[in-house]
Amino acid sequence: MDKKYVLYHYWRSSASWRVRWALEIKKISYEARVVNLLKGEEKSTEFLEKNPAGYVPCLVLEEQGRKYFLSESLPIIEFLEEKHPEHSLLPGSSFDKAFMRQLAETINAGTQPLQNLDVFRYHSSEKNKQDEWIQHWIKRGLGIYEKLLGNKGGTTTAFSCTDTPSLADICLIPQCYSALRFQVDLSQFPLCEKIYEYAMGTPECLAASPDAHKPKES
Question: Is the same domain home to 61 and 135?
Fold first, then answer.
């Protein structure tokens, strides 16, 4: 059955990076279409028809002449995991999978959304207060992630749970990148920092990273 994927994304969006990375890991070809958040393109009528929430990423699947739209990074990745189970992002036992999802949601639900443009702009119009807000939630989220890893005895694997990237890492690494962008010292979170440094040396992560998708004019 022929399938064609189109990914609407923004180069520096953490959630977009997650999906790009999953596609790279699973070696799935796709067409990338940029939605410029700084120009407000995610609020356009055309894009809102694809994702009424007005966020990236949005994955479009064309199958047998019909288009299907999926948004929110984790449901997109779970869909890809079921459709393309090779190079699994949720390996291990039922408990292992649940723990990976717990780590992922620590970032996906409790940390990254508080850094969205419309959230910190609503919090304050002053850049220094915006930065303080973002730094606070990054430190809190990475602190929880670090504690969760520590509670299970740290990690002897390259990534959070195994020697290959899982759903947890796909959420962690873009958040670490954002932490550095907002001058949060990753050495406060040595387990997270170690995973980040290893991941950023892998070809799939680099191919999905913001630097690989940065537009020339940025």
Answer: no
Sign of CA dihedral 42, 59, 20, 152: positive
What confidence score (pLDDT) does residue 217 get? 67
> What is the predicted pLDDT for the residue at 65?
84
Which range marks the domain in which residue 45 is found? 4-86
Closest CA to 107 of 195, 171, 56, 150: 171
E-only strand ranges, the chain: 4-9, 31-34, 58-63, 66-71
- Asked if the structure places residue 218 within a domain, the reply is no
- The model carries a pTM of 0.95
Within a domain: 210: no
Q: Convert the pLDDT of each residue in 140-193 to its tens digit.
A: 999 999 999 999 887 789 999 999 999 999 999 999 999 999 999 999 999 999
What is the number of domains present in the chain? Answer: 2
Cβ atoms of 160 and 134 within 8 Å: the answer is no
Q: Residue 165 phi/psi, 5° resolution?
A: -65, 140
* Residues 117, 200 within the same domain: yes
Count of residues for the chain? 218
Q: Strand 58-63 vs strand 31-34: parallel, antiparallel, or unpaired? A: unpaired
